[in-house]
Write a structure and sequence with these properties.
Number of strands: 5
Structural class: alpha/beta
Order of helices and strands: EHEHHHHEHEHHHEH
Number of helices: 10
Radius of gyration: 17 Å
Largest sheet: 5 strands, parallel
Shape: globular
Strand order of the largest sheet: 2-3-1-4-5
Length: about 200
């Protein structure tokens, strides 16, 4: 089975492309939501997070305390690295199980949606990369509208992901600039995979 990464910076529209692919019948693993699920449901991950970041990592009802985790890990490179060292391997293992299950059931291609392809090491797990791009001003506006973040907060997040922004040689590019139609681009790339 061919595993394709669907990546791009915050606000680029990779989730829109992922939804298009799902509507077309393709399976898409959403790293962000699955990592959150693992941090909540996987006892090993929970134990590691509590050991690393304290009992306040989870609320009394057992849900992840996102505010606490954000406060200790984001803005502190060392703490973020420790968080990533727990979550990234667990997510990679979950992707392997998911992909193996799909392959067993006859899937020929599946997609992994991630904003941090290289940082997470997922670039070494996939066969191809589709990189969704959009101009910075368009991305900032999209994120501000959907999340209520300030322009500065969005710019800070974009800057934190800057290492992921560059399109590497061999990556397929999907332009999502609110002008260029997405469906023909996605259809073309799907067609290329079948050839």
């Amino acid at each position: 089975m061919k595993l394709v990464a669907l990546t791009g910076g915050i606000g680029s529209g990779k989730s829109v492309v992922a939804r298009m692919l799902q509507v077309m019948g393709y399976k898409v693993y959403d790293c962000d939501s699955c990592a959150k699920r693992l941090m909540t449901d996987d006892e090993t991950v929970r134990g590691q997070l509590i050991a690393e970041f304290g009992a306040d990592t989870y609320l009394a009802d057992g849900t992840l305390n996102r505010q606490h985790l954000s406060a200790v890990a984001f803005g502190n490179d060392e703490a973020r690295a420790r968080l990533n060292a727990i979550v990234h391997p667990a997510t990679a293992n979950d992707i392997r199980r998911w992909a193996d299950s799909l392959a067993t059931h006859g899937a020929s291609v599946a997609f992994v949606e991630t904003a941090i392809l290289r940082t997470s090491g997922l670039d070494r797990m996939v066969d191809d990369v589709w990189h969704v791009t959009a101009p910075a001003d368009v991305r900032i506006q999209r994120v501000m509208v959907r999340s209520g973040l300030s322009k500065q907060q969005v710019c800070d997040r974009m800057e934190a992901q800057q290492a992921e922004e560059a399109v590497a040689p061999g990556e397929q590019v999907i332009v999502n600039d609110n002008v260029t139609a997405l469906l023909p681009q996605v259809s073309r790339l799907l067609g290329q995979m079948c050839n």
